[in-house]
Design a protein that fits this description.
The structure is a homodimer. Chain A is an alpha/beta fold and about 425 residues long. In chain A, about 35% of the residues lie in helices and about 15% in strands. Chain A folds into 2 domains: about 140 residues, Aspartate Aminotransferase, domain 1; about 250 residues, 3-Layer(aba) Sandwich (Aspartate Aminotransferase, domain 2), CATH 3.40.640. In chain A, helix 2 runs antiparallel to helix 7, helix 3 runs parallel beside helix 7 and helix 4 packs across helix 5.
């Protein structure tokens, strides 16, 4: 007997898996039995290669001790930056893997604002963006004396660029999954004499990005979501080659010095992307990430994009009738305007539905108010996985399983 | 036949090992065969427990995925801070393990300077300190408009405190091993209306520290040297409870927000030590460090200090006659004025001697000009280890083994 979800048969999705050019990547990840993981937009699954990479680095620490720093640890930020560059459309030597997004935004704010004339020092943050981007902009403005402003969500960017040195924008919104037009927006900001720092947290590894091609000069992003670098893996920072010699970045530490081992008293920035480093970084954290980035070299980004849209549309197709009958609002943007997530709103039951799904092994996440987020990671999700996740969703909603009191207990989630 | 080094017999040091109350800790570390490691002041050896802790965290990432953040990862900065607190004489909730030293100094500079009156905004850096402390002070002053000044090495601190908001001082100098009197210096700085940020990189885990007892209000330090947290392990930051509510720190990220999961647009600092967090941290890096810090709970810090001095004096005693005959200058400070290292100067042969020792498995390090540094880590070094290291040193020097051209090739060391 063929099972159907709103007309979509299990057989049909199995056939799609057989034709999936990315299907082979699933074997490169270790996912626990019985889990359907739709939260790769929060923390990516573990690449099989990560364990050996980390174990090897532990052995290196044990056996080589201090010499490990001359055997690859010290150069990790640039080496991993070069591995990541093609995934985001950057050139060799334009990307550094270092610190976290919050800190990398601060560096770029300082770097950009110091080069702006006195009347153009304001920093513009995007309303509705992931909060840390605004928090660190506020911190920067407090210490530097720059003016901090918010761009209201949905407002026209062009109306808010007077006197602005730099605006921080996410390419993909973390709540809605809405994708900005990077080329057009970058051009608009540049025409107003400002710079834009792109936050790629929800786009790097989720879709093809062409930083060089779109004229982007500055970007940051994390590696623990779609790039599968591990919990709290180091972030990255991109600076276009043409603007790499603009002076200091304010978080000037010894690893960003021109000659870190000369131990000079005065700071002098390195003349390349390594000036955006600060202090000593965790060799273990980089090892796990390097294992993942090595895998990305084999990924066809257009095939990834095609599958991302197909998976998210499959999920919505399997549930479309349910949304109507149960008052769930699908705010997922259209294909050409979204990242790699489905965003559903149920103000009354959203939290409990997500908890009930988690109890069944279907991992999504919830953000107030009422938002259920489901991330679609083409490297380790099959069409059948998505169909099964939709089946669970139907069952939870149709059986009102979410009314169980255990699904109403509140706890912190990231 | 009893072997003697300047009168010190091998038998005598074996007897000291038998009476050593810290001897049992050596079994908690994994050191490679044939290595005598006198570089724990650069990168500490690996605790046996580190491997399992990291492997367990890898398994947690694989099996629990995003839920790991609710199972200990998120609270790591405070949990590890509380483990570390007794080792440095801090109270519960006064220490956060987070980011690196460079960044933590920046946070404290911003936090302190914003609370100072307009005429007292200068930042004073210590000449001869580890350079990153000065580099980040320069970066802070560049972005904040504060005045940056250097305290010349050896100058009287009291003469340089006019208009100074904060001075950054190392408790133990990284080159000479010279130990400052924390209580007297803190009192002096406070009497001049300024604050001091203590850098404990070369003292935490090397000797007893009494932050609370000496009146210290602010400190930073790293955990990858004497605390054995692993290469690039996260640093720490101490803020005395009485000054924890002084406003923002400028690197304001979402993990330092009062309600990180409320996703408010505006930043509001947490009302405790967690306000000094920035963004998401590496769970793997914290796992290795936690394994080490757990071990420190069992260490008698006075016994550690006694053995540290005994080991370093043993090394010097075994070599004392050689220093004279071969023109090697021992600049190691006296017992009550030093950390846990021996510092020797041979401007002509120092680099090659260190390289020749490394080739024999005796790991020390070298800093221009002419400085040979040897760190003494009482938890995993025996008296016999130190005696054998001194024997190798004698053989290298007496046989002029260091003249071998291979020991004159230059390479970066950390």
């Amino acid at each position: 007997m063929s099972q159907r979800l709103n007309g979509v048969t299990l057989q049909s999705v199995k056939e799609r898996d057989q034709q999936d050019p990315l299907a082979r990547f699933k074997a490169h990840f270790t996912l626990p039995e019985g889990v359907l993981y739709l939260d790769g937009n929060s923390l990516g699954a573990q690449p099989v290669a990560a364990k050996k990479a980390v174990d090897d680095t532990l052995d290196q620490w044990r056996d080589e001790l201090i010499k490990g720093w001359n055997q690859g640890w010290f150069d990790s930020p640039e080496r991993l930056g070069n591995l990541l560059a093609p995934v985001i459309g950057a050139s060799h030597t334009e990307v550094s893997v270092t610190d976290n997004i919050t800190l990398n935004i601060f560096k770029l704010l300082g770097y950009i604002v110091q080069q702006c004339p006195a009347g153009r020092k304001a920093v513009l943050s995007e309303g509705g963006n992931f909060p840390t981007d605004g928090y660190i902009a506020q911190g920067f403005c407090q210490v530097s004396g720059s003016d901090h402003r918010f761009l209201p969500e949905g407002a026209s960017l062009a109306d808010y660029l007077d006197g602005v040195a730099v605006v921080v924008l996410s390419q993909v919104n973390y709540r809605t999954g809405k994708l900005r037009d990077m080329a057009a927006t970058t051009q608009l900001v540049h025409e107003h004499g400002a710079e834009v720092i792109w936050d790629l947290a929800h786009s790097a590894g989720a879709l093809p990005i062409d930083l060089n091609g779109t004229g982007a000069r500055f970007a940051v992003g994390c590696t623990y979501k779609y790039l599968n670098g591990g919990p709290g893996a180091p972030a990255f920072l991109y600076v276009h080659e043409s603007v790499q010699n603009g002076g200091w970045q304010p978080l000037s530490g010894w690893h960003g010095h021109r000659s870190p081992f000369a131990f000079d008293a005065d700071y002098a920035p390195a003349d390349d992307i390594s000036r955006f480093r600060t202090g000593t970084h965790s060799a273990l954290a980089y090892a796990a990430l390097e294992a993942s980035l090595t895998l990305w070299a084999e990924v066809d980004m257009q095939a990834l994009r095609d599958k991302s849209l197909a998976l998210s549309n499959l999920f919505r197709e399997c549930l479309g009738d349910l949304f109507q009958t149960h008052g769930i609002e699908d705010i997922t943007p259209e294909d050409d305007e979204r990242g790699s997530q489905v965003s559903l709103i149920d103000s009354e039951h959203g939290y409990a539905i997500v908890q009930a799904l988690i109890a069944r092994g279907v991992i999504g996440d919830y953000r107030e108010p009422g938002l259920m987020r489901f991330g679609f990671t083409p490297l380790y999700l099959s069409y059948e996985d998505v169909w099964q996740a939709a089946r669970h969703f139907r069952e939870v909603v149709e059986s009102v399983e979410y009314q169980n009191p255990q699904f109403h207990v509140r706890g912190a989630v990231t």
